[in-house]
Amino acid sequence: MTPTGLCNIPYVCATLLLTFGFSLSLAGQNDALRKASEAYEEDRFREALVYLNRIDKINSSGPLLFKRGVCLYETNQLEQAMADFRQAWAYGYEEPEIDQYTGLIFHNRGEFATAASYYKKYLRELSADSPDRPRVRQLIRQCGRAIDLSYRTPIAIIERLPGEINSVYDEVGMIQSPTIDNRYYFSSNMPNTGLSMEASDFDVYVSNESDLSWSEATRLPYAINKSKEEIVLGFTTSADGMILFRGPEYDGTMTISRRKGENNLTQEIEFPVQFSVINADAFFYDDHLVLFSAKLDQGYGGYDLYYIKKEEGTWTEPINLGSSINGPEDEISPYLNADGSELYFSSNRDESIGGFDVFYSPYLFESVAWRTPENLGIPINSPGDDTYFSLTYDGLSALLTSDRKTSTGGKDIFLARFKRPRGLQLYNTDYIPFADYKVNRDEVVIDTMLEVAMIHESDTSVYVPETSAPNLDTTQENYTFEPLYYNRSQDLFEKENLGEIDRLANYLLDHPQVTATIEVHSANEGIQEFKLFSSIKLAERIKIHLISQGVADHQVSVRSMADHYPVTLSENKGGQIGLSDLFNARVELDLYTADGRSIIDRIAPDIPKHSYDERYDLLSTLLEDAITYKVQIAVMSQMYRGMALDLFNDAMVESDEETDLYLYTIGWYDSYSLALETKRKMERLGITDPRIIPYYNGHRVTADRLVYYVNDYPDLRNLMNYGN
């Protein structure tokens, strides 16, 4: 579907504005509509979203709600997009596109049968001669394929690399250094100057991985990154040169930047093929054998995979890999394992579950042919485009690029950790049979000078900064903290409490690798949903104050426990008069090192034994249990009202740092099976999409971090195998 304009007729715009009221001036409303329309038409959805939200009473206009829903979908905010589509329908916008986008949301959420039903409904609403019908039919077939693949045991666990690597812009094509195992290079179009928010040309970046963390990505200097597109593709056999796609977007060349003495020599590779950013995904097995994708006359349709080899100093003409690999759709992003017997590539054929999927084909030596390609399955593949697949040198992991809707924005880099090693990566061959190519390894000399930035003759000497990930400080001393108290007659931000909050700010500034969780508890008064929501708002006030002191946003998370874990019994349960009001409304704190270790020493209040509430000890136990589970029942931008809060005595709300939405959970279990029982109970109560969320030391564990804990906590395998 090609989106239509937001408002192309001045009269219609004026009528809309009169309907919406005049909280903004007429000129301001016209300007917001115009800018939103321009950004929307040019697929600048984040920008369009900003201007749409400036339009008065957008929440009562079906057409504008639909447009905002599209922007939310395109910026990976699926739940909010679904809410806007439903509201648009309620306000009379009943165009077929709503069914298409609803199907896309369910498709990206992994609910393939529901997605197919919406696609079929959309297909019935299209005219018989609509050019969109083939695409929709393919989406339906891909949902069917996804349902089949969902029953297959996953071969890997996948994680999105953190914010040190991924941004709201595009990150693509991460590859491992040939000389330093924990160093990785990739390309990104994130702005290379703080003066602009617009995406730049692609540049090459470097980052180091260490245990559980990655160093902040560093842009390579001008010796590598010119004022053109640069996408890193590989390295020379002797590891003394970096191979790049370089040039304007649609007219680039394959280039080697090779260090020679004190200078950097740039050499174009004279291929008999024209390359562009679209197909800048050539794979260099070595200096003399290259696999790549291209649209050539001798192909089978769309982009096909080819190889060329260098014989006596001259590149051969491109040779198609044949009909076993190539088909009528597109085949791109080839990767050949170390011994040349396994081919990985991406294709948007019907056997994918949506967009481009990664496929695998071993070479059958007996048949002298490639085996029919096999989809690598979920979770390596997604309903988005999954490309640039490459194995690490040990075969235990793979790197790939994906624009799946769980990404930060645009294209992100993901790491797949295999349950069994793949690719025979530790074995080298002397002969590649499919290309009739004899490997010459006599020239291989590992040159660690590559890890110093290469320079051009006209450049001054520039070096890549060492960007090793920070060492995890296991000797970090614990931070001592006494709860901060507040009640109806005592403001949290009184002088004594404010001093403690400022002390915390100074500590976080001195220890940027430490993260803090602000946890607010309330007294036993009022309605449950109000206690949870007012407490999380109080926690947010503390976070805002910490940020105002210079603390980084990502260092602080917030959550609310309401009155579920009091220090002292309330008066109606035998507690001492006045103690409940004095001690239960409080702020607790937890601090974590980069590896998830808690470094807080809490000072418990001095409470008479007969008034002490054992639920306080229960909370400490839960936070000290390494792996626990909760059931997420809602993701909201506002207060949640639901009967689940009244049925359970352990509801919690926390803020999602990436979306600023509130995550409501219930229960706290030490096994996956117990959490699963509660999840099923929630489903029987009509709660949609409850999810099991793992916690480590009371800290939410994202899916991309599970792999770090599974060996020590085998129960996590149940979550990985059966889902949340």
Provide the residue-averaged pLDDT.
81
Portion in strands: 25-35%
- The CA-CA distance between the termini, in Å, is 33 Å
Tally of helical runs? 15
Gyration radius over CA: 28 Å
Helix content: 10-25%
Arrangement of strands in the largest sheet:
27-30-28-29-33-34-32-35-36
Determine the oligomeric state from the structure: single chain
pLDDT < 50 stretches: 1-24, 443-474
Q: Which outline best applies?
A: globular
Question: If you had to describe this structure to a student in words, what would you say it looks like?
Answer:
There is one protein chain. 25% of the residues lie in helices and 26% in strands. It contains 15 helices and 36 strands. It is α+β, with helices and mostly antiparallel strands and 724 residues long. The strands form eight sheets. The chain has a nine-stranded mixed sheet. A hairpin with a 5-residue loop joins strand 8 and strand 9 (253-260). The chain is globular. The longest helix has 21 residues, at 528-548.
In short:
The protein has 15 helices and 36 strands. Residues 1-24 and 443-474 have low confidence and may be disordered.
State the main characteristics.
724 residues; alpha+beta; nine-stranded mixed sheet; five-stranded antiparallel sheet; 15 helices; globular; disordered N terminus
